[in-house]
Amino acid sequence: MSKLVHLLGFVTLNVFLLPFLCKSFSPETPTDRRVLVLLDDLAIQSSHSLFFKSLQSRGFDLDFKLAYDPKISLQRYGQYLYDALILFSPTIEGFGGSIDQAAILDFVDSGHDLIIGADANASDLIREIATECGVDFDEDSNALVIDHTSYAVSDTEGDHTLIASDDFINSNVILGSKKIEAPVLFQGIGHTINPTSSLVLKVLSASPSAYSANPKSKLSSPPSLTGSAISLVSIVQARNNARVLISGSLSIFSNRFFRSGVQKAGSAIKHEKSGNEQFLTELSKWVFHERGHLKAVNVRHHKVGEADEPAVYRINDDLEYSIDIYEWSGTSWEPYVADDVQLQFYMMSPYVLKTLSTDQKGHYFTSFKVPDVYGVFQFKVEYNRLGYTSLSLSKQIPVRPFRHNEYERFIPAAYPYYGAAFSMMAGFFVFTAIYLYNK
Amino acid sequence: MATRNLGGFLVLVLAFTICEAASVFQPISDSHLSAALELFAPVSGSFGSLEETYEALRTFEILGIDKKPDGSSTTCHSVEETVGSSSSTPKDLLYALRVNRILKCKVNEENFKGIVSMLKAAVNDASSLLDFYYSVGSLVLIKEQSSDADLLLDDADGIFHSIKALSQSDGRWRYSSNNPESSTYAAGLALEALAGVVSLASSEIDQSAIGTLKSDILKLFDSIEKYDDGAFYFDEKVVGARQHHGPLSTTSSVVRGLTAFASVTSGNLNLPGDKILGLAKFFLGIGIPGDAKDFFNQIDSLACLENNRISVPLILSLPATVLSLTKKDQLKVKVNTVLGSDAPPLTVKLVRASVSGSKDVSIENLDLKFDKESASHFLDVLPKTVDVGKYLFVFEVVFHDSEHEKVYATGGRTQVPIFVTGVIKIDNTEIAILDSDLGSIETQKKLAFTSFIQSFIGQETQKKLDLAGHNVVSLSANHLQKLRLSFQLTTPLGQVFKPHQAFLKLRHETKVEHIFVVGNSGKFEIVLDFLGLVEKLYYLSGSYDIQLTVGDSVMENSFLKAIGLIDLDLPEAPEKAARPPLQPIDPYSKYGPKAEISHIFRAPEKLPPKELSLTFLGLTVVPFIGFLVGLLRLGVNLKNFPSSTIPATFAFLFHLGIAAVLLLYVLFWVKLDLFTTLKALGLLGTFLLFVGHRILSHLASASAKLKSA
């Protein structure tokens, strides 16, 4: 009887989970769907509602949970329950349930996306997770980013920790093609990116006059973070294309900053609305793979004039190579248009590296002559561009030398030898007849 | 759990306030209006359920937004339907009546009579708090909306006691008698229901019962929680699994109940005014919630506080806490109720103003003037004693009519942090290279630099200087010398100014940066002794950019300026010296396309020109021609060819065979492979052996005959 109950439970569970599994993150539709939002306090849900609403209106299924809720978990029976995680719980010292630092890193390692909103008084746990992502927050827990020359003019905030920054990364794929006109309001802690990590990018940098210090105490020693080395918002794209957004400010996501007007110190232009909404909406599109996610299909190569893919090429063959590249637009795969996709014909090192021609509809092609070196080669497309997922395709193909009968024959230079041999033979024939029948 | 919740909420509140203990709360303003219109946007003329409609309409009513939904007729229709239907629950009725109170739909009086009796029965039978709350609430609303219905409760005392029976000793309430869990949220509902009972009672409620209820309220206020900035709020002690109410909805429930109860009872509740003010501060500190429910709770509670009988909170707010000395900003203070309406006649007194962190008092006991037009209190000019800096202003509200002190809560003295900003004068700037023995100055660039910085500081000439960007100093030094930079900062009042940020930055060509804090001992001076710094500079010789950053939150002319270049000649790095730190790679260069590579094919072997080969081909045929010519000259003949048929046939076949072998060789050269050739050669060879033997033996015998003859 109890077995039957277990079986029943299992079946109901499956039925319950099935719709989720069908909707899960997949290479075919790479957009995240189910997002776990961990909050310090449920009031953040209301105070940051514009940001959450922009996600929900794009079809994300947000699951708001308190970060110390003992029932939260990221996975069940080895299956991840969510495609992405938003940590808006800067002060949390330890998560509830089965979530801890390792679980979050495993979540990212398995290709899922993460948004971290830290803030003043960020806990060690949040700092450690950020460090694992290649981002080091200022170790002084009382430090805030201060900027006395590019702060946001405000009647009520006089300590210049409310920064208006417009030093964005120059990338259409990350921030959208529409230029962000208004500066972004930022109030929080600064971080630097680890110089040894090649995967972290500063999206929003502080101005050269910024520094990170406690505004209430006098400075005796130089602050550890200064100038444009301070990153306010950074992103990481891991090697498995998981994307992470790390912000030193939680209020950058808040309704108050979204709605607030902004005027940068020293500038006469007063923007009606800060750039926060546009900046974070576009950035969240990138983080949740609605932009900049590439896939390559229809990789083909063959000899010129043929259609079938050979198992082996001979040296000096002329071949054609083609590939189709698509970008995920959030709803469908659109042809990816660029002019810098490159193909390598590779054995230990590239023998041929060629930029592919394109028909502007996502089809890339080229033709070249196989080098006169035989061995096992690879067709390699290594496409790493700022903000795009990296494409790394390689296809092995052997290249053989000429066969004995494939060399050139009847070489003109050898005509004297041929002539000598045949005249000798003719002479022999004549000689035999003459020798035998001469009288 | 509750404390953690508190900690989390603190973060939120901090996000909305400056990180100072004393915060400025702003009353409800225009930004709330636009946010309300955005949040309560009707979908196709309707706000959804009656509850949501009520929340939207009530918010609009409080904020004075005269925007009835287009579909008010459809809303009225559903109100009438709910009121007219006998199957409506008290909860539906309550919200329908609340909507009706705002929309004033024409509901048939007969319908009211029908539901009154039903509600009365429900009140008498009710066992749970929510039943009481909904039915009593509905009855109160009907009393307002209908004149002739018989609404008075006969057994008001009994009902009062049965609701009171659900209360706990700590001032909280249970939802029902068989549910032991007590809740602060329920306390608010109970107070509202009890207020309703009192107003509906046909005879006076027992005063002792009301007295105990008042002490219950005081007990409830013992559990009030507090933020550092003076805001008070209520929160549930136990987070129930099913019905969790956050601090906002809990507090607003208590405020609603409390104000409703206060308005129906006579006598004083003895609640301290600062707690009421603290509650108002709590609601204002939230800012603009992004959630419709939270928004309604905030606005509705503030409206309850606005007109409550206990004490009306007055909010002292400053439109600007950053005052510029150069612009001669006025100090303005506004005193409003929470919803932004005018306060009774009063005077705002500036009790004290002092630089934060010090005891020196800059201003004492000043009365602010009142400007009727802008309804604000102001100080014309800041007194001469106020220099730039961070100040703590302490204000006090003094009512003209002493009676008002009982009605209004102002929270005593209000501390407000004020930033007074101004232009800082920079003097005596000089930069010099000193030899290591003091005094002998090798290079001193004084004038140029002074005028340079000063011209930069002047707002008008700033642009001019940017154009003249080449106006920079250029210095050179070796490791035995020192760099000295000094300048003086003075405030508008002639005091020495100490900025928070005074950095000298040296940046090497390889982007390695070094930052030095410019020390201040009356005069800002930094001496860089390169001998002691070589290790810190990683022994990197070459050109360094010098950047000076001076900034402070009260300094209006904070600047970051490249002063010039210094060419350092440092000794070679010893083996063990630390390597300069890794610089982050420029992301743009990391990702570009790579240079194309094309394979260089092996050059084909050098061959003689075709003409030469053909010439030599011709030459190789020459011996054959010579051979033929020689034969002709010798007069060869074929007279020995056998004449008889059989030997002639064999001779013919023999030579044909030889020709075939030769042809086979040609074919072997042109296309045949070795195996085919050998096979054919074998056959031809056998044939040749046979015919050759026959013809040669014939020739031999013929010649033997000839010899013997």
From TrEMBL, chain A:
**Sequence intervals crossing the membrane:** 415-437
Query: Which Pfam families is this protein grouped with?
Result: OST48_MD (PF23358), OST48_N (PF03345)
Q: What membrane topology term does the record carry? A: Single-pass type I membrane protein
- Entry's localization field: Endoplasmic reticulum membrane; Membrane
Record-annotated OST48 N-terminal domain positions:
34-287
Q: What does this protein do?
A: Subunit of the oligosaccharyl transferase (OST) complex that catalyzes the initial transfer of a defined glycan (Glc(3)Man(9)GlcNAc(2) in eukaryotes) from the lipid carrier dolichol-pyrophosphate to an asparagine residue within an Asn-X-Ser/Thr consensus motif in nascent polypeptide chains, the first step in protein N-glycosylation. N-glycosylation occurs cotranslationally and the complex associates with the Sec61 complex at the channel-forming translocon complex that mediates protein translocation across the endoplasmic reticulum (ER).
Q: What is this protein called in UniProt?
A: Dolichyl-diphosphooligosaccharide--protein glycosyltransferase 48 kDa subunit
Q: Which organism is it from?
A: Ziziphus jujuba (Chinese jujube)
Automatic annotation (TrEMBL), chain B:
Ribophorin II second domain residues are: 314-420
Indicate the secretion signal residues. Answer: 1-21
Does the keyword section mention Endoplasmic reticulum? yes
Write out the annotated subcellular location.
Answer: Endoplasmic reticulum membrane
One of the GO BP terms on file: protein N-linked glycosylation
| Listed pathway(s) | Protein modification; protein glycosylation
Q: Which UniProt keywords apply?
A: Endoplasmic reticulum, Membrane, Signal, Transmembrane, Transmembrane helix
Its domain of life reads: Eukaryota
Ribophorin II N-terminal domain spans which residues?
A: 28-306
Q: Which residues form the Ribophorin II C-terminal domain?
A: 601-701
What membrane topology is annotated for this entry? Multi-pass membrane protein
Residue span, Ribophorin II third domain: 460-568
Q: Does the keyword NADP apply?
A: no
Where exactly are the transmembrane stretches of this chain? 612-636, 648-668, 674-696
* Family of the protein in this entry: Belongs to the SWP1 family.
Q: How does it assemble?
A: Component of the oligosaccharyltransferase (OST) complex.
Q: Which PANTHER family match?
A: DOLICHYL-DIPHOSPHOOLIGOSACCHARIDE--PROTEIN GLYCOSYLTRANSFERASE SUBUNIT 2, RIBOPHORIN II
Name of the protein described by the UniProt record: Dolichyl-diphosphooligosaccharide--protein glycosyltransferase subunit 2
What is the source species? Ziziphus jujuba
Ranked from the top, the taxonomy reads: Eukaryota, Viridiplantae, Streptophyta, Embryophyta, Tracheophyta
Gene label: LOC107425765
